[in-house]
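fwd from M.: "can u put these together and see what the complex looks like"

so here's what she sent:
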Amino acid sequence: MAENAQKHDLAADSTTESAASLVQYVSGYGYSAAGTALSQRRRGAIHSKRWVIALGFVVPVLLLGGWQFISATGLVPAYRLPSPTSVWLAGIDLAARGQLGPYVGISVQRVLIGFVAGAGIGLVIGSLVGLSRVASAFLVPTIGAFRAVPSLAWVPLLILYLGINEDSKVTLIAIGALFPVYTTVAGALRHVDPHLVELGRAYGLGRLQLLRQVQLPAVVPSIVSGLRLALAQSWLFLVAAELIAASMGLGFLLSDSANNGRLDRTFLAIVLLAVLGKTTDALIGLLEMHLLKRWT
Amino acid sequence: MTSATAIPGRSAPALSVSLVDVERSFAGATSKDPPRRVLRDVSLEITPGEIVALIGASGSGKSTLLRQVGGLDVPDRGSVRIDGSALTGIDQRSAIAFQEPRLLPWRSIEANVDLGLPKGTPRGERRDRVAELLELVQLTDAASLRPRQVSGGMAQRASLARALARGPGVLLLDEPFGALDALTRLTMQDLLLDIHAAEPATILFVTHDVEEALYLADRVVLLGVESGYASNSGAVIRSVITVPGTRPRDRGDSSLAHLRAELLEGLGVSTHHPVHTF
């Protein structure tokens, strides 16, 4: 019987692509059809990816067309709905005044710093709570209570203690980014396949080794989806922070222009938030794809 | 039959295993339920290099007993010794392969086998040893594949190679071939015997399969609840059967028919074979 298996190995060797031939050889003997199905599916995915991206643009283009049509025909007066062209021109105008670049820049900077800080803290607390029952018993009720506080409730305190400056805004965003990461990481670590944890123990892995070699890799997909949620939350909290107390940034542009009746600028701010939010989300999506390929 | 390549100087000598009056109970399903005793009065001496099969009906404590020997679980009473010294927790002189392959899905087959090597093995030596083991279990061509890309039999062989990596004195196998199809299973049994010839560890394995036990083992240990006792009184060793002849055994050996029937009757299966049950 071992002779048979040897013969199959030789057959696999003789073909050029050894990985591909191995898959064929396996499925040829009825062990696993998954091998071939997998490669076919992957090929299909590459083919249809362009379609998916193209289809994703259909609705925005239709919306833009509808918007242009409504404002061009005067169905809705311009003071209630500025035309796409006027929004575009408002953007050019702001850029020429040298305001658009700094506004976008400062908002992106606030989101990134707040997101990194909040996600980092969330990762640490989430790991503690997910791995240690003692830490969980100690911290979970308190963290739950803090999470229950509506985010805007922190604003007066943050302004009082930290002042109307970058610190208070970044802190608010960090608070927003912290909880999604904390929740997903703690939950995922608690539910790592106990079989794999036992395996690690049986092969002599200590606590840290177990964390590094088994538990963290196992929760990589959850961490990434937590990060994705946290990033969306960061943009949300950015606008909250900038609406209330800011002299720069997209949130400020939003409130300032609405107060001055510059609806074209309000629309500009909204469109920019949508584009920036979607872009950062797509970037993290790429990271997710890469990590999932590596860690599952 | 290919003769397995011997791996010089790496495998530790086979070690003896000694169980004395091992007893293990688990808490009931709710706090009101009485504790459920799974094993009691289990005493067994296994000599170095011996292959012993543990057989019994579902829930007869086979896996629990194996886990006591591996140090994954601790008996409530009695003692487990390997090579004369009592176990304190997980013991690096033994290695276990589980019922499921339990490979880390994000690692290649190669890197999964590497996990079994003792800590502090130098890198070059690790690579050589993993390559040798993969050859031993005929997985050289699959070294860089991920577990999801290989068949169940290949995954189980990788799990076996991982258990062999540290050159264990005692190899513990929990229904290692239970989830495989019948043909793959026969191939794997021969592979195990090849491996035993190349790296002669003491092997204690759990199985449901009477044929497998008689084909592989020097002795077959039948676990079960004594007749007349309640099912939660704990399983004991009902009988220990020494399998006659030397390996490799003839799969169709008619002289084993009586033992087969005896074991099946012991498992509560009617064989319609004229035999006196114990």
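replying to her w this: The longest helix of chain A spans residues 207-244.
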